[in-house]
Amino acid sequence: MNTTTSRRKQSAPVAVVVNTLxxxxxxxxxxxxxxxxxxxxxxxxxxxxxxxxxxxxxxxPSTDPALGHPLLEREKIxxxxxxxxxxxxxxxxxxxxxxxxxxxxxxxxxxxGCSYPEQDFGYLSGPTMMIAGLRFIIAKALAGxxxxxxxxxxxxxxxxxxx
Length: 163
Hints:
23% of the residues lie in helices and 18% in strands. By secondary structure, it is of the alpha+beta class. The protein has one domain (11-155). The two termini are 26 Å apart. This is DUF2591 domain-containing protein. Keywords: Plasmid. It comes from Pseudomonas putida (Arthrobacter siderocapsulatus).
């Protein structure tokens, strides 16, 4: 399946820092990665239907656990909530790869920095576990290993407020 744009003309892509991706941008990028045909109706990412005059159901793995959790489980993402006043990530969820889960050995968390710099992408954050994890999946697939991953997002998704 192909990901489609809204009925508007496609606009030029914009480089966006992964840790600042909105829920709509996350939903669009995950749909592309998963091969889900979607459209953008101006407010929501929706499943694309064969009849272009009909609107499909909202596709939102960033807010719908039935869509998002299986992706996090498949990718073996591990999480940590920071509840420490004064910490730069206070109140956020951090996500990182958990490569050794199948063997029973966990990737070690460190308060600052990465435990295995040659293997992991560092931490990606978000206000919820799902958003942090999906940002990590996007960075892993589209940006690779970099300290400040950026991805290309269609311009028409850059000025939209989340519903």
